[in-house]
Amino acid sequence: MKLFDEIERTETRPSQNREQSYSYLNLSARPMAELIRNTLEQWFEEYPEEHRASLKNDMMTQNDQSAFTELLMHQVLKQFGEGDIIIHPNIPDTEKKPDFKVALGGGEVVFEVKNSLDTENPRIEEFCDNLNERYSTTGYMLDLSFEGDFDNPISVKKFIQFAEAQAEQLDLPALSAQVGNFDQIPTWVFSSGSDRIHIKPIPCRDLEKVYESPVGMTSPHSAYMVDHAGTLRKSLKKKASRYGELNMPYIIVLNFEEGFLDNIDTAQALFGTEQFIFGRRQNGEPDFSRANDGLWADSKNTRVSGVLVINSANPWSFWKRTPVLWLNPWAAHPLDTTHISGNLTFKEANREAGRLEQTDGRDFSGILNLNLDEWETVFNQ
Length: 381
What we know:
The chain is of the alpha/beta class. It has helices at residues 21-27, 31-45, 49-59, 64-80, 122-134, 156-167, 172-176, 225-240, 263-271, 364-367, 372-379, and strands at residues 86-87, 100-104, 107-115, 137-138, 140-147, 188-192, 195-203, 210-211, 215-220, 250-256, 274-277, 287-290, 306-311, 324-327, 345-350, 355-359. The chain is built from 11 helices and 16 strands. Helix 3 runs antiparallel to helix 4 (64-80) and helix 8 (225-240) packs across helix 9 (263-271).
């Protein structure tokens, strides 16, 4: 069984916002689509044969992103595991089945994979598709973040007029110098009724490069970042006690699609919301503490050994993403990190120092031994 159809491909158009990744990859003849398709096909061949039909079916439906994350993690676990990876293993006292069980570090470890985002706002997707059809940029792409409910249609014509007026004042050489420095890139704000679209012109090194489909990234506006911790916590709580007492390390893998999480968001989701308490000190200085609303505590969700957080990985971006494993200091069954040290980045609590310490690892291109030069060359064409 093949993951993709064996057909002659001639389609060279960009993907549309409402188009599923699998559908587009299956028909596109563009070099980057071919590279991704060949890579996923190789991973699919290494997936247990008896489970391929189910995974392919999920890939071809609305579950395509979740299925991609499972396929990605299966390939990652192949790099670390000792022996076969069991897909949907049986768990005592429950009919529910996690995604994987693998021998790791001398013992068995259970992994549950989840994507945090299920649906998009159809008006936003329609707007992005229409914008890509009617607008192009030179020397930069557009990062769009959306603030509001967007219950009403967004005028593409007015947006283009606004973007063109802003672009006339853009210093492209100065913008190009900010490649990789997201915080220094200017932000334009387009209003559509009570809704807002925050626009960042993301520079490329080639100032002459034309983007026929200029929308490079979309996400909720950063004003909602305060909700990221809550979204993450809510997603994880559903999985924390799903399988009862496993008597082995249990890792939740979360591919977070609502934008980019920073360490503060993740720490607040896992350890509690930051708060300052006044009135305890005579000098008036506040005490820093955390609210008791985190996923973890010394007597709460101790069956979860860690959470592997991936920031918005999809078939187009996964190779650049660096997964971070946050370890639960109160875990009933701590994870032996011997086999991931140097590969996975992980965060671990230093109780004596009272702080979180990070051990750096690699991005997915390094973990999966991808030819980084090839991927960068193809994606920069």
